[in-house]
Amino acid sequence: MKKVMLIDGYNVVRRTGAFDRALDRSLEAARDAFIERIKIYCLKKRAFDEIIVVFDGSAKVSFESQRYKNGPVNVIFSASGESADDFITTFLRNKLASSRITVVSDDNYVTNSARAFGADVMPCGDFMELTRSQRQPQEAPADEKTLDTKAAAAINEQLRKKWRIN
């Protein structure tokens, strides 16, 4: 069974605080930062077969640009007059039988609908924790603290000889 993550995009962007600086620039900048975070997560983890982010659309968005693929992330803008919440509910109604869906949202309407359709629910904060960049610890620089005592003694002996210290 296909594993799908369905994300209430603006809900995560606005509720977590992680994209506030980008929001100060523009809504588009916050969307881009959010999608980039998901793409990085996708490169590190293969927990889901498909990740779909749904944003509220507007009359300004043409039909052709309402749905696009951004690397491993499918981005969908709801149709004019339809909220992302309604799109998510319709998607759940139509796709749940063929997929195991996890819905990411803190919106009560969305989460209650997801549970009613039998989907899993992940709060926005848990999602942000899941996608937090796990950087590998950098190696400590080589110095005498990381040398074994025999190697350190040999280096010290060579330095004494070079500097003619007894």
Overview of this structure, please?
The chain is an alpha/beta fold. The chain has one domain: Rossmann fold (3-Layer(aba) Sandwich). 45% of the residues lie in helices and 19% in strands. It has seven helices and six strands. A six-stranded mixed beta sheet has the order 3-4-2-1-5-6. Strand 5 (99-104), helix 5 (108-116) and strand 6 (120-122) form a beta-alpha-beta unit. Helix 4 (84-95) runs parallel beside helix 5. Mean pLDDT is 82; it is low at 61-66 and 135-145.
Rg estimate, integer Å = 25 Å
Strand content: 15-25%
Low-confidence stretches: 61-66, 135-145
Q: Give the strand order, joined by hyphens, for the main sheet.
A: 3-4-2-1-5-6
Beta strand count? 6
Shape: elongated
Oligomerization = single chain
Compressed to H and E, one letter per element, the order equals EHHHEEEHEHEHH
